Amino acid sequence: MMTENPTPSVVVVGAGWAGLGATDHLVSQGYDVTLLEAGAYLGGLVAGWQTTAGRPVEAGIHGFWYPYKNIFELVDRLGLDPFTPWTRSCQYSPQGLEAESPIFQDQPRLPMPLGTFAYPRFPRLPLQDRLSAFSMMYPVIDFDNSDQAWQRYDAMTARELFKSYGVSARLYREAFEPMLLVGLFAPGEQCSAAAALGMLYYFILAHQPDFDVVWCRGTVGEQIFRPWCDRITAAGGKILTQRPVTDLQLDEQGQVKAVLCGEERFTADAVVFAVGISGFQKILRSSSVLQQHSQFRNLMNLGAVDVLATRLWFDRQVTVPQPANACFGFHPTTGSTFFNLNALHDDYRHQTETVIEADFYHANQLLPLGDQELINLVQQDLATCIPGFRNAQVIDASVIRLPRAVTHFAPGSYQYLLPASTPINNLFVSGDWVVNRHGSWSQEKAYVTGLEAANHVINRCGQGQPATIIPVEADEPHIQIARGLNQFLRGIESNLIPRWGLP
Ligand SMILES: Cc1cc2nc3c(=O)[nH]c(=O)nc-3n(C[C@H](O)[C@H](O)[C@H](O)COP(=O)(O)OP(=O)(O)OC[C@H]3O[C@@H](n4cnc5c(N)ncnc54)[C@H](O)[C@@H]3O)c2cc1C
After folding, report:
1. Considering just the CA atoms, what is the radius of gyration of the chain in Å?
2. Does a structural domain hold residue 345?
3. Directed axis angle between helix 17-28 and helix 226-234, to 10°?
4. What's the rounded Cα separation, in Å, for the pair 111 and 132?
5. How confident is the model over 179-220, as pLDDT tens digits?
6. With contact defined as beta carbons under 8 Å apart, do 190 and 180 qualify?
7. Do 208 and 180 belong to one domain?
C-alpha cells in the first residue's frame, strides 16, 4: 500500500474503450492521469475521422448489444443520447435472403434457447438442420467461463466442437460459421472452441433479448468519444495523441517509475496498458524491461486478424429492407456485414443518396487489392443481395484497411493471454483480450477490463473508491440448475476416475 504521495500519478497507454474507461474512473477519483495514445485519433478500433472531402468515416461500424450494461450506464451518466432504437437484421448469401431476425425483446419471452430458435425466419434452412443445434446444449452448459472450462475447450477448434456434437453441415456453414466470422473475426477451424462458446452464449444464447442491438446515430467517435474525452480533460485528465510508448523504466524494487515514448518520459506510480495484441507485441520488441518476463514474451504466440472497413456513397436511393445485414458465402473464410446508414445516421436520414458501410472480417486476402477493385467488389456483393445497387453509381468511397487489428482467439491461445495483474506489480493490463471472469465480449469487455484495471490501481495506491461494474445478467434458472448438476457430476467423476487423458 502506498500512502506517501497525496496525488498518485498514473499513466494509461492506449485510448480505446479500455484505456478511456480506466482514465475516466481514475480521474474521477482524484488521480493525476496521463493517457498516451500512439495514433492521431481517440477511440482505438472505434476511432472516427473525416475524409479529405469532409465525410465522416470510422474503423468499422460498431453495434451495442443488449447486455452492454456498463457502456449503456456510462452513456446515461454522460447525459448522451447517441443510439438508434433496437434494429432488426437480415442475413444474405449469394443465393439471396437466408434469415431475418426480429427484435427479440418484443416477442413473448421463452426460456433460453427457445426464443433464439423460434423467432428468426429462415426461408431456406430446413427444420431438421435447425433442430441439430440442440445437440450443442451440453457444451453450452458445460462451458461456464471458468478457468477450468477454458482449459477444457480452448485447444479444440470451434469446427471440431460443432462436428463432434452432430451439428448438421448446413447449419454450421449457414448459421454458426457466419456468427464466428462476425463475432470472433475468424472461420471455425481457426477459432478456439472455448471462445466460440463464450461469445455465442453472451451475444445470442444466455437470454432471449441478448441478440438485440443498437447503433450510434453518427460515428461513435463523434457521438460518444468526443464528449467523453472533453469530460475527462475538463476533470483534469491529460490526453496526449501521437505518443507511441516504447519502454518502461523500473526503480530498485522492480516497479515502474516512468513510461517512455522515445525520448519523452512520463513518471508514474502505476501504469495501465490498454493496447491491443499487435500494439503490445510492438512495445515488447522495443522494451528491454518487458522482455525480462516470460509472461510478456509469451504474448508473441498470439495473433491478430485483418479487417477491412468500406463506406460507399451511391447517387440514388436504393431500398434496403433492414438497416443491419450480415453475409456469408461470398468470399471463403471471410465474413461481412453491410449497413444502411440512411436508416442509422441522423446526417443521412433525409438524403437522396444511399450511404452504405460494408465491413469484412478475416479479410486477409482482400487487403492487398487496390481501392477501386475493393469498391467494385463491394458493389458486386451488394447487388447480389439487393439488385437495386447494380445500376447505382458510386459517387464517393472510403476504404480503410486494418491489418492485424482485432484479437484472434485461436485454438490454444488462452494459455498466453494475460490477467489484469502482471509480474510487475504496479503495471496492470486491460483490453478485449485480457482474461477476466465478467463474461462480456468486444467493446463491453474492453470497457469493463479498463474499469477493473482502474480498481487494481485504486487497491494498490489506496486512494478513492473502486468503479462499480455491472455483472452480466444471471443465467436463467434452468441453466443454473443444469450447470450446478454438471459441476456436481464433474466433481464426482474427478474424485473417482484418475485423470490421465487430455482435458
Ligand atoms: C471493423 C470492426 C468491427 C467491430 N464491430 C464491433 C461491434 O459491432 N461491436 C463490438 O462490441 N465490438 C466490435 N469490434 C471490436 C471492438 O472494436 C473492440 O473489441 C474494442 O474496440 C477493443 O477496445 P480496446 O480498448 O481493447 O482496444 P483498441 O480499441 O485496440 O485500443 C488500443 C489503443 O492502443 C493504442 N496503442 C497501441 N500501441 C500503442 C503504444 N505503443 N503507445 C500508445 N498507444 C498505443 C492504439 O492506437 C489504440 O488506440 C469491431 C472491431 C472492428 C475492427
Report:
1. 23
2. no
3. 30
4. 18
5. 999 999 999 999 999 999 999 999 999 999 999 999 999 999
6. no
7. yes
Q: Which atom of ligand 1 is nearest to the CA of 361?
A: 1
Asked whether residue 43 falls in the same domain as residue 119, the answer is no
Within a domain: residue 331? no
Atom of ligand 1 nearest to the CA of 308: 1
Assigned domain for 60 exists? no
Residue 285 lies in a domain: yes
Indicate the top mutation candidate among 20, 62, 184 to test ligand 1's pocket, ranked by most ligand atoms within 8 A of CB: 62
With a 6 Å cutoff on the Cβ, whether 276 touches ligand 1 is: yes
Do 185 and 132 have their domain in common?
Answer: yes
| pLDDT tens-digit readout, 455-472 | 999 999 999 999 999 999
Instruction: Identify whether the C-beta of residue 274 lies closer than 8 Å to the C-beta of residue 280.
Output: no
Q: Are residues 119 and 258 in the same domain?
A: no
Same domain, 227 and 203: no
The residue segments making up the domain with residue 154 are 89-212+473-496
Whole-prediction pTM value? 0.97
Residue nearest to atom 50 of ligand 1 (CA): 62
| CB-count exposure of residue 270 (10 Å: 0-12, 13-18, 19+) | buried
CA dist., res. 32 & res. 34, Å (int) = 7
- 176 and 108 within one domain: yes
CB 399 within 8 A of CB 373: no
What's the CATH code of the domain at 244?
A: 3.50.50.60
Assigned C-alpha cell, 402? 486494418
Judge contact between 38 and 270, C-beta under 8 A.
Answer: no
CA of 402 to the centre of ligand 1 (A): 11
- The residue to mutate among 400, 442, 451, 472, having the most atoms of ligand 1 within 8 angstroms of its beta carbon, is 442
Quick check: 471 and 438 in contact, CB under 8 A? yes
Q: How many domains does the chain have?
A: 2
